[in-house]
């Protein structure tokens, strides 16, 4: 009985870690306070019809909404 419990505990300890989703790793980063940074969309091409104000706003990074934080942290395995 004791050997069986030891084997169960041993197998739990050596199981491999979960990998992070590489797409999320490239798109999101954590701030010092624990919030999640992201880049804005629509700032890669066809910029001639967009105003300077809009392009300037899209250059800056944004934060993930609180309602999506749980899913992003799960993808980052945090």
How would you describe what is shown here?
Strand 1 (29-30) and strand 2 (36-39) form a beta hairpin. The protein has 78 residues and is mainly α. 47% of the residues lie in helices and 12% in strands. 1% of the residues are buried. It has a single domain (20-76), classed as Factor Xa Inhibitor (Irregular), CATH 4.10.410.60. The chain has four helices and three strands, in the order H-H-E-E-H-E-H. A three-stranded antiparallel β-sheet has the order 1-2-3.
Shape: elongated
How far is the first residue's CA from the last residue's CA?
36 Å
Which structural class do you get from the secondary structure elements?
mainly alpha
- The CATH first-level class comes to Few Secondary Structures
Strand content: 5-15%
Main beta-sheet annotation? 3 strands, antiparallel
CATH architectural arrangement:
Irregular
Which blocks of ≥5 consecutive residues have pLDDT under 50? none
Radius of gyration: 21 Å
The overall pLDDT, averaged over residues, is 87
| Order of strands in the sheet with most strands | 1-2-3
Fraction in helix: 40-55%
Return the CATH topology. Answer: Factor Xa Inhibitor
Number of helices: 4
Instruction: Report the count of strand segments.
Output: 3
Topology at a glance:
Elements: H1 2-13, H2 22-27, E1 29-30, E2 36-39, H3 52-59, E3 61-63, H4 66-76
Antiparallel strand pairs: 1-2, 2-3
Pfam families: Ribosomal_L35p (PF01632)
GO molecular function: structural constituent of ribosome
Organism: Dyadobacter jejuensis
